[in-house]
## 1
Amino acid sequence: MPLNTLEIENSLNRIKNFIVNTPTISNEILNKKIGASVFFKCDNLQKTLSFKARGAFNSILSYQEKHDGKFPEKIVAVSSGNHAQAISYVCKLFKIPALIYMAKNTPSVKVIATKANGAEVILCEKRADANQWAQEKTAEGYFFIHPSANDDVIAGQGTSCLEALLEIGEIDAIFAPCGGGGLVSGCYFAAEKLSEKAKIFGCEPLNANDAAKSLRNGKIFSFTESPNTIADGARTLALLEPCFSYLKKISGILEISEEEIIFWQKEFLAATSMLIEPTSALAIAGAAQYAKNNSHAFNQKLLVIISGGNV
């Protein structure tokens, strides 16, 4: 089925017994600082402490539906951390062998957590090598689950936004971190009917702005080396299809400086006592940037997806 709101709803029904319906909160201190009525979908409280559990569960359970109840024999993935933890967690639950390629600059806490779930982890000097090796493993019988360029993953990730919209109703604008573009794409389809007038913004590090450059130039831009940003979840080299096509439908990509990322990570901690990872702070910074440039924002409802809490 092509991605749409119904497919996001189907995905939520598929995974709801395996994930947490995480809280959507508002905070008076942050509302005043941002200048709008802001709702934060706290997927930092999700299984494996990130929204990635949603896509991992949906891709593997969808595979099971399509193959007469059988799971993949073995799974391979590439990840900067959160996708790795999610895939390894789901594979441990369903007793599926997992091989994960991770970059050597991945935060050690994420590598340790992935290994703790029983996955075999191979650290790579270059992200491009990891991508190539993972693709080659499919010829050996592995089921490859890409962290973003996979419709089942995107649909699963979109359930985060869907849950929030089902709880709070229509919204004026939605902000989500943008690495590979899967979460932002999922938000677009989740809002397609439930909040069809909502503007959708991907929020990307200025230092790792491949999505922004791709949309500006009308063709996919790729970094040759992993970008230097504190937001490790957004250190992707390039968008892939189908995400590039989906991101052409959204309202835009907001580029966030390293200083803004750090500032809003600290502000969220001070206001809520929740420590979130820098990638999550991208979306808060994006909402603040939007409110600053929109004189009507103080009358608007904004939704921010807090993507993870693996610090």
## 2
Amino acid sequence: MENIIKISLLIVFVIIIPVSAVLNYYSRSAQRHSEVKRYLSILNIKKVELFELKHPVVSLSTAVAFVTLLSVCFWYLVLFGEESGITNSANYLLGGANNIGLASAIDQEKITAYQSGALLTFNMAFLGAYLWGIQNIARRYSMNDLIPAAYYNIGVRMIFSCLLALVFYHLSKMIPGFSLSMVTDSSQAQGAVSKDLSDVSAQKFMPIIAFLLGMFPERGIKWLTGKFSIFSKQIDNKDISVRELPIQMIEGISTYDQIRLQELGIDSCYDLANIDCIPYLFKSPYTPRILINWILQAKLCVYFGQNVKELRDHGIHTIWQLKNYKAEDLKELAKKTALTEDMLLLVNQQVSEDKEIERLIEAQLELSKYWNKKEEN
């Protein structure tokens, strides 16, 4: 009876993935196709095949099959992992370097205990990645954006999160105080902790940490690389003048939006500021008003870098707003910010001569129209 319940749970948790794809394809995709046709009509684009996905059913089916198969394997480990005896025989995935030389019957209990903890960590990381994936599917279903890349992204996240969690688990066993450093920043506490206390801390906190790694693997890899000097030391080169402009600098972009833009090859404000708007409009689920606003924000970030915060405090959020400032207004703005008057005048002149910005504004107005208001006499 217990196995029947577990199998039923496995089926329920896994079937959500293919069902979401089927529902989206037959009930939601028509709305997206209608919107694309409207854009094509307004823009007078005849080469429709340039913006159509070739063999959409095959592409989507392959991606869904990939994530579904992964989910079956991972959910099997969650529900039947201990019963399968996978933790009893030594293997380097769950046991790591700690199992080297431990093969006798005397060491069997140590092997099983260690690998049981590793399996729990592995499973908790999968549960975090699975929960994030279900939330992502629900969000993208509501946005008519369940494309094959969305499912591939979830599958890769599951694999990456589980392996990353195992790395954390093995390091917590090998390095005294490592587990405590994951929950506190106190170097004195880390120095005072003994090896035995470190192992106890790992048992208490690793399942929770593994679950969070499944939800936010990027934060885990960033924290881990910061612990090793070979990764944490930055190249000391005074000639480097390229500023870091992460996509998070754009107002209105959430974590989900950042991942979606990365699927399109947009990783920074430089990328977003220089994309060809129309092709990306067909590839993304965002409305013209939102996408073009982000592009204009990105252009402002490219010109001013971190100083864009001061401009926002004075009501300037996009490069188009700065274009409308006159010379007198820019002089007053220079007095209120750390920006120089010459810099503001130079950027204003460059923006005024940039015809692409005017085309973006024109496209934003035309593509965002859904009704024709009659002018009052």
